[in-house]
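Researcher: We're teaching a course module on how sequence relates to structure. For the next exercise, students receive a sequence and then see the predicted structure as tokens, so they can try to spot secondary structure elements on their own. Here is the exercise chain.
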Amino acid sequence: MKPVSRFARPASLDSIMSGGWRALETESISGWVCRFSHGVTRRANSVLPLAGPVDVAGAIDDVEAAYRSRGLPPVFQISPDSLPCDLDAILAARGYALDSPTLVQLLARDDFAQAAANDPDPRVAFEDSASVEWLAAFWESEGPHSPAAQAISERILGNTPSVYASLTIDGHIHAVARMALVGDLGGIYAVATREESRSRGHGRAVMRALVAEAGRRDLAALWLQVVEANATAAALYSSLGFETVSRYHYRQLPA
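Model: And here is the predicted structure for the students to work with:
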């Protein structure tokens, strides 16, 4: 894995990324942004702690009450920008378990041309909304699988202007990805390939096509998030030039 990127990361990157996967409901508690989306994805159901409360213990108590009132476990997303600076240690002392260490990676506009390489794969098409077929391919690969959770998932996906990419062969979608548009930046989410179509370069083709589309739209940079343990995905993104600019993990209070 490459070291932290030589590129300066965008200011307020945590907030920008949250805008790429917007929760259905938010509530401010002592300056922390609490995100609620009926439990569908941890990203949309966790606290973004970007302000330092005067009474940290009291703020955590209030957060726990807010999540429990909705039938959700209290979860914090912890990054280098989280406040107060010792919040991670405070949560650990309260019994919050660490989970899903994640790399935040960036590809700057100057590197789009090299990452896109040749002309985009003609099998990759773009839409401004998620079609029924796109959603089916994404949910089959990544979930959720219940109709109720899928309805929430569709609302989260549609909560930010986005470009939906799909690689189609003989009328059948084999791989998908989503590029959320937040200001002059693009966020890559929902990169998924159907199980029977993996190891054929479809994910790489979709990524290259999205990078080319980002260049066509004159975006300043692309970001993505990849779970640190997902070596296959991390290797793909690294080979395209994405470099680590930040990290985060979750702290969740066990039931």
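Model: If you want an answer key for the exercise: The chain has two domains: 13-102, 106-247. The longest strand covers residues 97-108.
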